[in-house]
Structures
1.
Amino acid sequence: MKATGLALGLLCGAALLAAQGVVIAPHAVFIDARTRSGAVLLYNPNTEPVEVAVSFFFGYPATDSAGRIVVDSIRRPDSTSVSAAGWLQAFPRRLTVPPLERQTIRLLATPPAGLADGEYWARLVISAKGGQLPVTGVADTARVKVGLTLEVRTIIGVYYRKGAVRTGVALSGLRTAVVGDSLALWARVTQQGNAAYIGTAHAVLTDSTGKTLSEMKAPIGVYYTMEPRYALVIGALAPGRYRLRFDLSTGREDLAPELVLPSPPVRDSVEVRVP
Amino acid sequence: MSRLPHAGLLLLGLLVPRRGMPQSVGGSVGIDANVIGQALTVTTLSNLNFGSVPRGVATTVQPTAAGAGAWQIQGSKNADVSMAFVLPAVLTNIQALPGSTMPISFGATSARWNRATNNVAGATAFNPIAGATGKLGPPANPFIYLWIGGTVSPAAATKPGVYTGTIIVTIAYL
Amino acid sequence: MRGLRYAFVLTATAFMPLAGQRPLTVTGIQSLTFGTLLPGMPSVVSRTDAVKSGRFDLGGPHDTQGQVTFTLPSVLTGPAGATLPLSFGGSDAGYSQSQNIGSQVGFDPKQPFLITFSGQGRGSIFLGGTARPAPIQRAGSYTGTITLNLTAFP
């Protein structure tokens, strides 16, 4: 039998796919109870239209045993949870974004009567499918045109705020370990108040003279209690004693200042001994 | 009496408009803009492409190969994102009679991700079935790059034609 | 009698309206508004955009000329001192004697421009521009000011 090559039309053919993606902003949507509405902007930078579908679920970042941050998805939140997923709607839920155009998705909250003051959360899923792509390497394509679909799902946070909302974070259990050319650090952080703590984690390693040897900053969202792991690149440190300072503050560059709930910074430090 | 005409001429002289210094005035308006907040963009850079495969022989595309699927994720610098996949178990022949399928599988190192740098050789391998969490790059390069390969296993009697499927990549901002 | 004639002439002269004394005015009517911007995505406002373009109304002696110059910012200023680049192209400004946004003569706002007031001594300037937020642009509100100087030559 002639070994017939099979043209595999999985996700298109040999030609490099033109860059395809939908720009989604902001990456966090804050809805005030007075307006009960928010918006997400989509921009299609491509030359083909993109089909978009929107849905909600309840979930929030948490950490696993290794300190990695993951999204905990709660399929059936109970009545005491702070889930907003059941009463958030998106308009439209399905749309096509033409090439090089922007479209707005409006979010509307219809919370239950008597909702207590506080912040309620949901995750917004934005699924984007690009245009149909041709398949190459097929012997007879004269009358058969095949389109392949690629799908990208982006998940962002939605925060509904009612009444007096306040936030804070408690910091404890700061510890470090030298791992290869990095200094790993862990801290136990616990949300306080009735709103998620949205801020920035900052770590600085200094030597005995106070000189900064390594530094890192990263956005953080604390919803309950978590123990995130961070890493500072330190290279080959000379034996001796160093100081790691770790602080959490509510300053964020990627969110408009008026959206971030203020809270006093918290900080801690530990000695790092390199044998 | 003769002073009256002189006074009149003087008054006229005072009242006649004079050519002199140009007048200048100014006014201003504001300019305003509102930057909505950091955007998140997931861009498909290339498709997973197996090309032509022989019947009865499993064919693998490594995530490091030119035929691997690739994505670029751009967002807030140093932010954590999770990366997960919904993967097909079979591909369907869209030219033959219904029911013509081909298995596809993904292994423990079928995917890779790299922070900030579009370099698969230095990327971290992971199992796309399990997913991974990574940190977007620093200010100059707030990216994560993602690659995926896989293995197709056409049976010896697999019908010729085009086999298709869909891979869904899910990026969650944490 | 002759004195009375002179007095009458003087009085008439005193009350005669004098050409060139209509005051020059520049009134800022509408801000240049870029609205919501995505980081990394340039945003253009056309001078013919009735909602977003900037507008100045000018007043001066009818049918006379004046020279318009702008002081244009190169950036907008935002949270924590962040700046957002701004640019103006060769046709981002327009002048309309009829004060009608649909009837403008385009000009480069970076260069002086000679305008002629209408028969009623009026005119309007419309202004567009381009905002260029960086991909890592800090989120928040950004503002700036455009100043228009009008010089008339009586």
2.
Amino acid sequence: MLERGLEEKTYVLNLGPQHPSTHGVLRVELEMEGEFITKADPDIGYGHRGHEHMAENRTYPQYLPNLSRIDYLHALAYNQCYCMGVEKLLGLTVPERGEFIRVITAEMNRLTSHLLWVGAYLMDLGAFTPFLYCFDDREQLLDLLDSLTGSRLTYCFHRFGGSPVDLDDDFITGCRKFIKRLRSRWADYDNLVTKNVIFIHRARDVGVITQEQCIKYGLTGPMVRGSGIPYDIRKSEPYSVYPLFDFEIPTGDRGDVMDRYLVRMREMEQSLRIIEQALDKLPSGPIMAEKVPKRIKPEAGEVYSAVETARGEFGCFIVSNGDVKPYRIKLRVPSFGNLSILPEIAVDTLVADLVAILGSIDVVVPEIDR
Amino acid sequence: MLKDDIQKALAPLGLSQVAEGDYAKTGCHLEVTAEPAQMPEVAEKMLSLGCFLESLTGLHYPEHFTLVYHFGNFRELCRTAVHVKVPLDQEAVSISQVYPGANWYEREAYDLYGLRFAGHPDLRRILLPFDADFHPLLKKFEASSGDA
């Protein structure tokens, strides 16, 4: 410590990379005075696999499976964003039923992500039981998605031009049954967590983020909505068939941990609404575009496509030079921007609150590391 | 309209290009080209209009690097892409004084390309180990070369 020129009463604490509350392999180097943090320096990159480098070394279709391994909790939205980008480059239009399937699966996947977050986050804060409730619900969704896509976590489902598999009746009935089931659980969650005094004391007025900070750090997703900015790509930059559905963007007003929790809880109900409407309005027709070229070789150009994932804006910036391989793919991941605010909001908080703040950012570390 | 406001705000800076983009094709409403030294000014104008830095992408071409800054806005849909050409042997200019969030994006570009940012407070590697001796997104880099 003294080598660093710090005072004798300051000490350095290493949080992670193996700490359960860092969700993956994130290390945060903390300089502490007693229980209070004076400096936090996140050290990322433990899970760097070079996804952006891989993109330059394989053809467009070969890169599809990589997308689900960036953010493994909301893989279908990442699939969708990449497909949207390449479709723009190729000038392909996805048939309506194909878009509906994309929206239904992406929303189901958002629910699995939020349910996992609620469970794991409360476990960070010391509550074990909600985790079991959440995983019980999440399991039903995973079974449904498994029956459609063939995988439970790292989905590689969407294709350029649409969806490869159509929804069957079992899936639709299962979905409706699940919507009913999850709605009946909200009261349990409220009684178990939202009204829990211990939880409220851990979450209220902790880790406050202002709207100005949201802009300066480029935060997205529940992080900005918790601070009262109604920014959701599904509404502000409508893609796919989202404009056809009636749903709200829940926002908070204080920008603290509690608001971010409430935003995510309310978002789950909105996802249910979207799925319900999509099932009601599901049109018949083809699921794949008719003229998808066998050899994907887009013209030279640049395209930026963005979707709203469970954590915020995922942007896929594709630069093509007319080859069968992309010249460059930049993956703009929400957790990267969201985590970069941690050094600022961690200062002068207790180390126990840092765990609450870190969890409320909902980082998926492999997506930061890419 | 935010698009007009941005064009108006950027006009006095003497940038080489401020043009409307083809949103349906590229996903961007405005295409801007700037010199590296102009970036802090551009960033200040964007911040004053409430835009946030969406992403910073590096591109390695045989003769130069290109940095692409994407700016978005929470209130109104208007994505601005700013292209900055940086010669291979020169430095870019940091905007992390304006956008603290750019700090990590610039560290990432340095990490992947070896491109330095003048005025950056803490230009360390971010994704790769601190003692790595290569920059993996340079086009001459091959992951499969060597013993691996």
